[in-house]
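*** Fold description ***
***
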Amino acid sequence: MDFIKEADIVVVGGGVVGCAILRELSRYNVKCVLLEKEPDIACGTTKANSAILHAGFDAPTGSMKAITNVLGNRLYHQLEDELDLDIKWTGSLVVAVNDEEVETLKELLERGKNNGVQGLEILNREQVLEKEPNLTTAVAALWAPSAGVCWPFEAALRFAQCAVQNGAEVIRNCRVTGFVKEDGKIAAVETNLGAIKTKCVINAAGVYADEIAYLAGDDSFKIHPRKGEYILFDKTACNDLVYGVVFPTPAKNSKGILVCTTTHGNTFIGPNANDMEDKEDTSVTAGGMDQIIASARKLIPNLPMGAAITEFAGLRAVSDTGDFIIGASEVEGLFNAAGMQSPGLTAAPAVAEEIAEAVGKFMPLEKKSRF
């Protein structure tokens, strides 16, 4: 077989998780290549999400979501200056509008403490209104000072740029079509551009991660897309909305319809959470818009809908395990970073460290003297 390239490690998927993994692996004396099927990186979930760096109180204690969320948040506090990331450490509020929801806040507080989140506290109504005067329905809120918002596309770009500066390569418009295996082990990646010889593949393919794994012979998990729709407001509306990150008390399959600022000064409401079949369906719907508006009005009754400027939707990669899938596959040479729904953005640099550690048990990884 003819090869267009040889690499020690191939990363499949150029979202924020794949780019963070590429950067982490570029610390070592190995040749790394990232393959992205789209014309640019960050064209999937990374470009259409809530952009929140979560504190880490929501995920079940001991889950990979919880572990990597809390560590990832801490790493972003370090990476902010190192990579010149656009981050606003606004803190976040989970708002209760009745006594029953206050009990849920107490559960989240305890879970957050168990997860290792620092600085959590429950605020009374007066303290909530001092931070966010428009939350007139609030009776209490869980305050998480370590949370913030970032610019996800920039984060992915900065990770990729750092990796390339350290010798890695990014190939765009490159779709994985199959794998070559020898004695059950990964030997090459087949793409629309030709075959790439490698013994190690990192699968960070977002909503397509299960399909990439299946091509390699791993059918241990399934991914389904969950669509979230949003409404974005003009910057002039911020005084009528919020200055930070505001969640409702969470629902079973979603953190709920939030009201949230962005690093650019706009505010949005959303997302809803609808399980889909089509992994390319990012359409917005009238029903979805109605649902978002009705839910957001539970937090802010007088939404300035005249200042809404656009709507958009994104897809989250939800695994059938209910948790992130991180580490070595049953197929030798394949490593998965899959099911990266929320808090995947926050967890990305921590997931990258987990993957590097797993790869280091498969092949020797020697750190570069300069990175």
Q: What stands out?
A: The chain has two domains: 1-90+146-221+321-371, 91-145+224-319.
